[in-house]
Amino acid sequence: MRKQPEDRPGGAKQVSRAELGDLGTRLREDGQRIVFTNGCFDLLHVGHLRYLEQARRLGDVLVIGLNTDESVRGLKGPSRPILPEDERAELLAGLACVDYVTLFGEPTPHEVIRALRPHVHVKGGDYSADELPEAEVVHAVDGEVVIMPLVPGRSTSSLIERILETGGERAGQS
Q1: 3-state secondary structure at position 138
Q2: How far apart are CA 63 and CA 83, in angstroms?
Q3: Cβ of 128: how many Cβ atoms within 10 Å?
């Protein structure tokens, strides 16, 4: 039996790759400005929240391309992700600033961008527009790239390091 949207992790906010093109078309026809970002979003933290809230303010709809567990391992190593993709999708979908979440397993979100055709593609300040692999694809679908500053001292890797250093005690404190 096919899962109904509300039965998926992330509920109706999670869209499949097959649904993405129709979603993009419908949103554009409704005059909505589509903002897209992507990432691993492992161990959701305040840096993620602030980044996503800022990205959402650039348009009417925020769509997140979430790396699958397999692609996170390829990017971050065999000990990652900490949280499985269904839980990461559910956490992201639970944020008020997030409208849709879609999973992708490729090294880059090129195919997601081609299907969705966002008006704006947002990446964190650890990238520059010149070195962003998907910039050419974004421009090919008439989108613009926006580099958003990161929240200093807030990253999943630094959070994991603090947890390991403290043995889990006071990990959330600066």
Answers
A1: helix
A2: 20
A3: 11
